[in-house]
Write a structure and sequence with these properties.
The chain is α/β, with parallel strands linked by helices. The chain contains 19 helices and nine strands. It folds into two domains: about 200 residues, no CATH class; about 230 residues, 3-Layer(aba) Sandwich (Adenoviral Proteinase, Chain). The two termini are about 65 Å apart.
Amino acid sequence: MMSCRRTGLEDLLQKYFLLITGQHPTETFDLPILHRCLSHIMKNAKALCKKQIPKHYTLAMHIFGLLACCSSLKEMDEVLSSSTVLFCSPCSGANVAKHYNNLHLLMQQRGTLELDDKNVAAEEYKHDVGNIPIMEHFRTTINSAPLDLDGDPNIYYTPEFIGSLAKYFLPHAVLWSGLMLGDLGRHGTSPAYQNLSKVYSKVKQSKEQNFTEDNRTQGIMEKSQWDLKQIRLQRKRFSRLDDFVRIYQKMHDALLLEYGDMERCRKKSFPVEEEVWRKKKKVKGLYVSPLLLDLSLKKEDTKERTTQRTNDDSSQATCNFREHQQDDTKERSTQRTDDDSSRATFDFTEHQQDDTKDCTTQRTNDAASRLSALWKQKDTVVVVSVVPSQFRKDLLVRHTDLLSLRPHNWLTGEVIECFLHHTVNQLHLEKTIYVMNFYSATAVLYADRTTVRKHSLSEVNFANYKAIVSFVSFEKTHWKFLYINATENIVYLLDPLSNPAEEADSKAAAQKFREYFKIRTICHLMREWADIKFEGAVMDHPLQQDGSSCGVIVIKMAKAVIEAFPKLPKMEFGTTLKEMAQERTALALEILQASDSVRQL
């Protein structure tokens, strides 16, 4: 409507301000009266109050209701001034109590509006409307509020709430309050306003016009717009008029057929008893109705704060006295207890080491006996260990995963990933080295771009890490170790088997990860590591000598890399059949001993 009348929003708001301040120049009124849906405004107000003033959310929402019910600029100034005193005064004095009682009285006296904001979504409104007169008027009202600067702390002190209110809502208050509703002749006494009252009286008596006196939303229009967007246009956006006509005609024909079927069914009578449901009472317009809650003025409990301060001082004095007393006692007895103390310390340390050694041995024996019993049983999905991960969630090791550590078995990815997290946590590198899930790493190297987007890890900020360790599944039959050093811009893809193309595979992996971080930039606007030009490289490592220990060697590689980080490790470990069998047993015992308490199981 505004584009058809060649009128901008700033110009329209300025003319509205002249009208509500009694400065309308002519007797003819040729401006469109625009009014925004109050349900959407209150939805946005709820989001603002929950963010800015959660402790006094109900009070703030009732103040929004007061502003929406204002029918004159004087009433709105009164509410805004009292709200400024309440929320911008750092101290609670006579002015805070006075203006709070004023707001409380206005809440009890206001009229009732029907409002339903349960089924509407918050909208983004234009709030940068320039330096318009109404904004200057509200700034003057806020700056002239008599704030309390002496007294007890004000628990309602939230100046950012008034700032957000002035920035996002007040510039277009004439569009969502009652200032432009009803008889506009009430805003002035000139002949122009008398003419507006006559026009209003004439239109009000007409049955063909829908001239509202309050800001009630027409539900039929809300439902009509929803029906048009969601059903007839199928939630699509069109850039061509012929596409719009085609889709609209198609859905219109379908709705006509459905309506015809429904009419035919109505003409038939079926002996069906109607089930009676209990009617639910819906609460509408809570914040734009007379106040029913007890919103009494709250003050900070100064007695409790004084008691706490006294206790703190008393505790500090007692602590200082004990420190001086201990120092005097220590000086008097130092010479007497030197020899006895050294002898007792030696004996205690010796006994402590023996106790620790016995406890460790007992724990190892228990884990070994438990492991022997678990390996003899048939595989189940029972959780046998809970290992803390690098992140919030713990890793569950099930019985079937533990059985993969038996000799001549192919390790599952869950077991390998569990050891990587355990090693990183043991060395306190959880904030330096990121352990990437092997599903994501495999998708980056071998899947298509559509699948890679699903593994873009939008919740991870790689700028917080210096390296990545992971492993990938090659053709679902072989594990390879993946190591990315972001500091040196190098990617290693190490194959436990002898592979002449290992360097070429590392270069291909580097190219894949360069593309991966560019995809993250496109999908999530996250640029960390996107400008790094990764290169592929190789490092010396022992080779696999059987057909099933690739997972064990990947764990040994990862452990060596993590322990030596940021330097390159010297990988020296045996890979014979006997050594791999011993290593499998050691890894299984480690995963059982690394488990959290039984309560987490």
